[in-house]
Design brief:
globular; Acyl_CoA_acyltransferase; seven-stranded mixed beta sheet; GNAT family N-acetyltransferase; acyltransferase activity, transferring groups other than amino-acyl groups; Aminopeptidase; GNAT_dom; transferase; 8 helices
């Protein structure tokens, strides 16, 4: 990377999101995950408008739940403008089949029964294959479509890993990658393959980053 590119990236800052940031974060995630194979498989039943409504609802409810549970919501900002977001959830809160009833109810209303079950099954599958209960999941990570190609994805991943390294009780974080370019990005930052996974009809890889305190 050139000196000019480094200077440009240094102008961006990664900070925890506030409640006022959640709406913009949800918009960034919606655009980034619109064509995600897992969400298409889980939420799309042939009607594009209904799929988009379900996706907006699922992202909104999950963001709000992570916020309420004080999980790590990290925004990447260019001055006052959010250009990326990463969300990490730990097993200090109930996940998968143990999800709170109020989350289930809100997700049912937003996405329907089958879609809610698909989200729960994905999470349960990841939890089952992580090394221990002391591991988190990189639930969402995205850069605004207009800001891609600037190296911001790498900076966002690094911000998430820096957060992980600062959590003494956390062994590391896992992420499910169904896109080869995404898997390559994570691998460049120290994620290693735990195992290939099939979630619903989607093939992918469960990648894991071991925190520095757990080397």
């Amino acid at each position: 990377m050139t000196k000019d590119a480094n200077a440009l990236l240094e102008a961006y800052r990664a900070v925890y999101l506030t409640a006022e940031d959640l709406r913009v974060a949800a918009s960034i995630l919606y655009n980034a995950y619109h064509d995600d194979p897992f969400f298409i498989d889980s939420l799309h039943a042939g009607d594009l408008a209904m799929y988009e409504q379900k996706l907006r609802g699922a992202i909104r409810e999950e963001l709000n739940e992570l916020w309420q549970q004080e999980q790590a919501l990290i925004g990447l900002f260019d001055s006052d403008r959010m250009v990326g977001v990463a969300c990490i959830v730990t097993q200090q809160v109930p996940l998968g089949e143990s999800r709170y009833w109020h989350w289930r109810l809100k997700m049912l209303i937003s996405t329907g029964w089958q879609s809610t079950q698909a989200l729960i099954k994905k999470e349960s599958s990841l939890l089952e294959h992580l090394p221990s209960p002391h591991c988190g999941i990189l639930q969402f990570i995205a850069v605004s479509p207009t800001e891609q190609g600037k190296g911001l994805g790498s900076q966002l991943v690094q911000a998430a890993l820096s957060w992980c390294d600062e959590q003494p009780e956390l062994e590391g974080i896992g992420v499910f990658a169904s896109d080869a370019s995404h898997a390559q990005l994570f691998s460049q930052h120290g994620f290693t393959l735990l195992e290939p996974l099939s979630i619903g009809n989607v093939e992918g890889e469960l990648l894991f980053y071991r925190g520095h305190d757990n080397d």
